[in-house]
Amino acid sequence: MDTFNALMHGFSVAIEPSKLLFALVGVFLGTAVGVLPGIGPALTVALLLPVTFKLDPAGSLIMFAGIYYGGMYGGSTTAILINAPGESASLATALEGSKMAKAGRGGPALATSAIGSFVAGTIATLGLAFLAPWLVEVAVKFGPWDYFALMILAFVTVSATFGDSPLRGITSLAIGVTLGLIGIDRLTGQARLTFGVPELLDGVEVTTLAVGLFAVGEALYVASKRFRDPEEIVPIKGSLWMTKEDWKRSWAPWLRGTAFGFPIGALPAGGAEVPTFLSYSTEKKLCKYPDEFGKGAIEGVAGPEAANNASAAGTLVPLLTLGLPTSATAAIMLAGFQQYGLNPGPLLFAERPDLVWGLIASLFIANTMLVIINLPLIGLWVRLLAIPQPWLYAGILVFAAMGTLAVKASVVELSMLFVFGFLGFLMRRYDYPVAPMVVGLILGPMAEAQLRRALQISLGDPMILLENPGSAILLGLAFIGLVAPFVMSGLNRFKASED
Amino acid sequence: MLKSILSRGAVTALALAGLTTAAFAQLELKIMAPAAPGGGWDGTARSMQQALTASGIAKSVQVNNVNGAGGTIGLAQFVNGAKGDGSQLMVNGFVMVGAILLNKSPVNLSQVTPIARLTAEAQVIVVPADSPIKTAKDLADRVKADPAKVTWAGGSAGGVDHIMAALFAGAVGGDATKINYIPFSGGGEALAALLGGRVTAGISGYGEFEGQIKAGKLRVVGVSSGARLPNAPDAPTLKEGGVNLEVLNWRSVVAPPGITAEQRKVLADAMEKMAKSKEWAEILKARGWDDAYLGGAEFEAFLKAEDARVGKVLRDVGLVK
Questions:
Q1: 8 A C-beta contact, residue B143 and residue B150
Q2: How many CB atoms lie within 10 A of CB A194?
């Protein structure tokens, strides 16, 4: 009951007109920067920090939270409309979302992502308010071995993005994992596969690869087919809004996505990518219309979108309760807290309850504002697709290049974008799936670092992976996931031969 | 687009604040933070921007970020692109000294014009609250007995935390090549590993662990400064614990190569004035940084000495051949 009263008190802080204004500005900015590829919420908050130095702490933090939630949502708009995921968390959304947009179903895709984000954000924020102290106890117990097992589980689920040929999928994944090796090895500080190019020391940027493969690759592919076999983009087909059927197919993925996103986001090294992949593959398995996956299944948008927003709320759990920043944006928000002489951590709830609960309450408000701002915009966004194809794709190329340069203004980065773009074109042309490659780049380095850390802690004993119940269970699940399809098909064949 | 609008907004807002306090000086500066927005160097650069404009020392200050590879990407761009330009500065620090060696950077700090050291942050060694290790001596005994069995959690490989772990082993007579140092990205993950009791000890800037120390979840084994910290009078120094070790994570500012003695003097004077302004003092207090101003030839000598010390450690632990 204490929590409830504190939350109500928080609302009384957050609905002051000035705070509402801060939340509105934050949400608006967040959506805007989320839409621009390359400029993420982290950069925006960093740039705003010096400006807000003299402003009221509660107001600024509320604005930052608005930017964070808004950015998570805005990233999905470009992922759906032009197949250019602005950040790695909206990668899974692009898979089905862009297919829906091309088939004239961009409206429902954007709507399910907006409402799914709202539902997930609200549930996860409730989780943040009521479960945070308990959840964080569990989260810090998660060791490198557990993370490694979680990554392995995520690797197994990647097969959902493989398309028709597992061999081609694994090829694409292997290229991605190899790209992940480029750069300074995090555990020894040695450079790997950089060929003396200093820009490669930090590795391949996920957004550069994703935008190159998805957006640039597609633009080249469409251009190559323009005169022989033009692809039809249907701006709007059927209802602009979600139909009754769409609602029916969306609500369960929203909830499941939240269930993945929030707890994994709360883990100190969980992140937003893993839950979106897990959600995508779960929806593919559970969907009543598995044939639609790869052609624009609404479940494939609803689930990952809910997951990435829920993970954003999850990230705030370790930030507020322990002062642990687990994402770039959270790290900068932490700098924001410190700018006001506040130290997030176990004492913050006790020392500044008005601020913490005001922030949590404003998250609910920011979430509501997001839906209110974005639903009416859908009609406008979808009209983008009515732009003649050559113009649209030229615009996408400019947009992609600008976004890449905004992250890292270097010739090497821009060259990489177009090399990946060309690779994406070839892969499309020869029917290789591109998503596993990006997944490999994200998961590969994470899995490697966690495994090596685990072995360093155990002084080299690999049994540590099986001795810990958490990692043992996750590895068991991964094993079942890997073997079950073969066993099932074997059983079916067995049954068939008996008949 | 938006980025430039935002930063321009920031500059205008700060310039307006400056208007009220002092008349405009004519100095226009560009400061490079060779790191992504949000980190320590970026914070230093933006704090300088704030102090320089608010105190009226400079008319306008622009901060640009060139991130990557421990600052060496920014350093290369600075050395090659800003040569002879007396209106540009770059923030750097302890971490860059190690990164240059580790990344076999083609450019190094001997190519820039040293201006001044500005801040320093004490490092701290902590253990989980329920650890049997109570003092620096307890930890020293363990490291001496078997360095491989003591797991250290800290920031990136070759960074200040890693170097300090190696220096600690060396200072207590253990084998620095055998230390079991586990790098984590950022202080957050290292903190989780400590709170979960998975590592023996952790190293970081004091500020990073402060909340947990005050909450009693982490115990300070020793701080790396010469004297106890003013904001943590209860925490003993490593020297008090019998370990002769002093490490400061300093941050400084340098100018491009090839500037004239006159240009150098203008910049050095501006930095000295800023370091002594009340605006700077306020920022230091808010951020929890120590004033470590050191200018001119003294700073140049300090930079050389640190370069030699870090180089030796990195070779000792086998990170640099």
A1: yes
A2: 19
Sign, Cα dihedral of B24, B25, B30, B36: negative
For the entire predicted model, the pTM comes to: 0.78
Q: Calculate how close chain A gets to B297, using CA atoms only, in Å.
A: 31
* CB spacing of B191 vs A322 below 8 angstroms: yes
Q: What is the pLDDT of residue B3?
A: 42
CB contacts under 8 A, B 28-87 vs A, are: 36-38, 42-43, 46, 49-50, 66-69, 72-73, 76
Q: Residue A263 and residue A270: Cα distance in Å, rounded? A: 8
Domain co-membership, B195 together with B273: no
Residue B231, in any domain of the structure: no
Least confident range from A10-14, A391-395, A475-479: namely A10-14
The tokens for B162 are: 């890693």
Across the A:B interface, residue pairs with CB atoms under 8 Å apart total 170
* Neighbouring residues of B301: CB distance < 8 A, sequence distance ≥ 6: none
> What CATH number corresponds to the domain at position B91?
3.40.190.150
Domain assignment of residue B196, given as a range? 121-223
H-run or E-run covering B91: strand B88-93
Chain B nearest-CA residue for A329: B38
Q: Is the pLDDT of residue A313 over 70?
A: yes
Q: Do A439 and A271 meet the contact criterion of CB atoms below 8 Å apart?
A: no
For A402-434, write each residue's pLDDT tens digit: 878 877 778 888 999 999 999 999 998 998 988
Give the domain-ending residue among B170, B189, B223: B223
Q: How many angstroms away from the CA of B227 is the closest CA of chain A?
A: 23
CB contact under 8 A, B198 and A201: no
B166 touches chain A (CB under 8 A): no
Q: Residue A81: left (phi > 0), alpha (psi -120 to 50), or beta?
A: alpha
Q: Could you say which DSSP state residue B229 is in? A: B
Query: For residue B36, what is the nearest residue in chain A, using CA coordinates?
Result: A43
The amino acid sitting at A406 is A
- Section B296-308 average pLDDT: 87
- Hey, what are A498's tokens? 């008996």
Q: Which amino acid is at A265?
A: G
B229 in a domain, yes or no?
Answer: no
| End position of a domain, from candidates B223, B258, B293 | B223
